[in-house]
Design goal:
Blueprint: E1 2-6, H1 13-24, E2 28-32, E3 37-40, E4 47-50, E5 53-54, E6 60-63, H2 70-82, E7 86-87, H3 91-98, H4 100-109, E8 117-119, H5 126-132, E9 138-142, E10 151-154, H6 157-169, E11 174-178, E12 186-193, E13 196-204, E14 219-222, H7 227-239, E15 244-252, E16 255-262, H8 268-274, H9 278-289
Length: 290
């Protein structure tokens, strides 16, 4: 098959692993920078051009769309869908996953555990917001943040009020969530491919840091999920419509709580922690669907 990996950086670990695994399984692999694609929209003849050349005979695409180019990247994925090309991550699922608020609403409707969350239209009743989520400490997140950026832990009422008011003043959309003390700065990522958890790791934030992101200096180790955690991860990926997903969860006293469902999860951390060939699982998922 001819498989296109949509990636702006050909040197990224995840991109390289997908190319490597695809070639090992006998496929023609091509890296395409989606930000440099031109889309031709015409009656019954949708086409994609890359560096002046028409992309022909593509069997499948594996989107690796960064948050900063979600709009255009999604348009490229949608164009391939119009051309009847299989995509490992559907365009609508990609859009849903990038909207933190919409994602939480979908997960809530599905009956999945979540940290108590409040979203308002720049409300001035800051004290009420803090009270509703159970009081301080609280976690305040910018809706567009990624890799732990735009996430603040406010440990006192004064600090929480100051941060929320500052974000409101900047017209930055934020959500306020309860802080799960028993998680102790750790979370669990379950990597789901085609309805199966193919790897799971526990990420621990560095000393003095409540964010567990590996980009923020956190560490990771392999973990065996409980039945509840595995079921929650699979259901979260399913209701979000994602064939490939990184489901981030907190371990709480009342079961797993979903933090986020990532549609372009990195492979380096999970493969290093688990020793599992996740890239191969993604290529096999593509094979089964083309």
């Amino acid at each position: 098959m001819k498989i296109v990996v949509l990636s702006r950086n050909p040197n990224l670990y995840s991109t390289q692993r997908l190319i490597e695994s695809g070639k090992q399984r006998g496929h023609e692999m091509l890296i395409v920078d989606h930000s440099k694609c031109d889309l031709v929209i015409e009656k019954r003849k949708p086409r994609v051009y890359y560096k002046g050349q028409k992309l022909d005979d593509v069997d499948a695409v594996i989107p690796r769309i960064g948050a900063s180019v979600t709009f255009y990247g999604t348009a490229v994925v949608r164009q391939f869908e119009m051309m009847k090309v299989f995509t490992a991550i559907e365009s609508q699922a990609l859009v849903r996953s990038r909207d933190k608020l919409r994602s939480l609403q979908i997960l809530s409707r599905a009956g999945l555990g979540l940290p108590k969350t409040v979203f308002t239209n720049y409300s001035r009743n800051v004290k009420d917001i803090i009270r509703i989520v159970g009081g301080t400490p609280v976690v305040i997140k910018v809706l567009e943040g990624t890799q732990g950026l735009g996430v603040v832990l406010a440990e006192t009422d004064n600090a929480a009020e100051s941060v929320i008011e500052a974000f409101n003043g900047l017209k930055a959309r934020v959500i306020v969530q309860e802080y799960i003390t028993e998680s102790k700065g750790a979370d669990v990522r379950a990597f789901v491919v085609d309805g199966v958890v193919v790897g799971a790791m526990k990420r621990q934030g560095k000393k003095g840091e409540f964010r567990s992101n590996l980009h923020r200096g956190g560490t990771a180790e392999i973990i065996e999920l409980t039945e509840d955690e595995e079921n929650a991860a699979l259901k979260a990926a399913r209701v979000m419509g994602l064939g490939v997903a990184g489901v981030d969860m907190l371990q709480s006293n009342h079961g797993p709580l979903i933090l986020e469902v990532n549609s372009s999860p990195g492979l380096e951390g999970i493969e290093s922690a688990t020793g599992t060939d996740i890239a191969r699982s993604i290529i096999r998922y593509v094979e089964r669907n083309v």
